[in-house]
Amino acid sequence: MSELGSALDSFGAEDLHGLTGGQTLERTAVLVAARNRLDAEIARTARHAELTQAPEHDGLVSMRSWLIGHLRLSAAEASRIVRTGRALEHFPALAAGFAEGAVTAAQVDVVASTVGEQERARAAEQDVDLAAFDRTWAALAVSSSHQTLAVAVKAFEAALDPDGAEPDPTEDRRLSVATHADGSVTGRFDLDAVGGEKVKAALESIVQADRPQGDLRTRWQQNADALVQLADNQLAAGDLPTLRTQKPHVVITVGVEDLVGEGTGPGTASTGFGAVISAARARWLACDAVVSRIVMGPDGVPLDLGRAHRVVTPALRRAVVARDETCVFAGCGAPHHWADVHHLVHWAHGGETSLENSALLCERHHTKVHHGFRVQRDPGGRWRTHRPDGTEILLEPRLV
After folding, report:
1. What is the pLDDT at residue 400?
2. What is the DSSP letter of 14?
3. What residues form DSSP beta bridges with 124?
4. CA nearest to 278, candidates 249, 253, 251
5. Same domain flag for 150 and 182
6. How far apart are CA 271 and CA 253, in angstroms?
7. Between β-strands 339-343 and 383-386, what pairing exists: parallel, antiparallel or unpaired?
8. Lowest mean pLDDT among 159-163, 192-196, 373-377, 380-384
9. Residue ranges of the HNH nuclease domain (predicted)?
């Protein structure tokens, strides 16, 4: 590992300004091949960790969750690594090209995401020689475009069941939502014809019902406003499924001085999903809202409610969420609507139902804590997690 670090240091110290165009392109090709080889080793190692249940060492149930929590990978990237590691066991020719640096992680994932356990089982039932396809796909990966490989793999999938029943179109529905640093949200969705028709009909009804004179919005803006309005209508109706005993609602946290003030107050309020907004926007939302008062101490911690009760009240839950925000178990960070309020000292053992005796834990880690693991809040306000043997779970340090 030290030799790998030294090699990367050497590359990073090289002055690129002295390279010719050809040398720059050659250097890029060498680096991509090296990255491919590293990606292959990451997938192989992750698969070994999965088979040996290594994530249990840090109190996590899967390699995917460990990659997300400890290495801060996106959910999609963690899933790709795990999926790739599993697939390489069944496609040795593709695995060899990957290990040599000639095949990319994205190319391997074209196969891994399409030819899974079910497809391999169907191929075995039909006496299909996967080894031949493995060699063909490996050859295409190093000699043809990415799209050519994708088409070839898709054709294999279709050939497994040429006369079968029409596939369920809803299985290809996808919706991804990304929140950016400024709190703005972008997304993408893919729907089948029927699902798309339903969504367009709902949006169109709102667009056509809101066409004021002199409206200069583009059609894209009208659609976006209609989508927000559709969500607003459903939230106000109050018949959406509950989240941890509460109806879904927009949560805004803002200081009382900012709430009653008159200035814009940029960056002084926050939403339940982590976006930072101005006090002016918070006041706008508070015009028609339920306002909850949480008194904060001088150290920024919500004060105790001053009463003991066995069942956590909605008020106490709000205080715990305001302090912890997510599951406090090391490497987790599950959203608060997945979480329980855990008694650090169980009420049956004399522990109070209070803020100081509470921690936000997702269902999985609530179970872990009741089976030997321990979470503790130090005097500085930082949550620490300990294994049953007393050692602390520490997140991997950020690379510098």
Report:
1. 43
2. S
3. none
4. 253
5. no
6. 6
7. unpaired
8. 159-163
9. 315-367
pLDDT tens by residue, 243-284: 777 777 888 888 878 877 777 888 888 888 888 888 888 877
Element (H, E) at 340: strand 339-343
Question: How many contiguous H segments (helices) and E segments (strands) does the chain have?
Answer: 15, 9
Domain end: 136, 163, 190, which one? 163
Give a yes or no: residue 9 inside a domain. Answer: no
- Higher-pLDDT residue of 316 and 97 is 97
The partner residues of 375 in beta bridges, in order of sequence, read 385
The whole-angstrom separation of Cα 364 and Cα 394 is 19
Contact 5, 12 (CB under 8 A): no
On whether both 119 and 227 belong to a single domain, the answer is no
- Contacts of residue 388, Cβ cutoff 8 Å, sequence gap at least 6: 371, 372, 373
**136 part of a folded domain:** yes
For residue 226, tell me if it sits in a domain: yes
94 token code pair: 């593709």
- Flag whether 317 is in a domain: yes
Domain shared by 374 and 282, yes or no: no
Are 187 and 303 found together in one domain?
A: no
* Length of the chain (residues): 400
Helix (H, G, I), strand (E, B) or coil at 308: coil
Q: Is 287 found in the same domain as 310?
A: no
pTM of this structure:
0.66
Residue 262's domain comprises 243-291
pLDDT of 310 > 50? The answer is: no
Q: Give the count of domains, the chain.
A: 4
| 21-29 long-range contacts, CB within 8 A, separation 24+ | none
Residues 323 and 380 occupy one common structural domain: yes
> What is d(CA 294, CA 304) in angstroms, rounded to the nearest whole number?
10
Instruction: Summarize the confidence of residues 152-172 as an average pLDDT.
Output: 75
345, 312: one domain: yes
Residue with tokens 């002199």: 214
Amino acid identity, residue 217? R
For residues 315 and 398, membership in a common domain is answered with: yes
Q: What is the mean pLDDT of the chain?
A: 85
CA atoms of 142 and 146, how far apart (whole Å): 9
Round to whole Å and give the CA distance between 344 and 352: 9
Per-residue model confidence as pLDDT tens digits over 318-345: 999 999 999 999 988 878 887 888 888 8
Which of 109, 134, 163 is the last residue in one of the domains?
163
pLDDT at 4 over 80: no
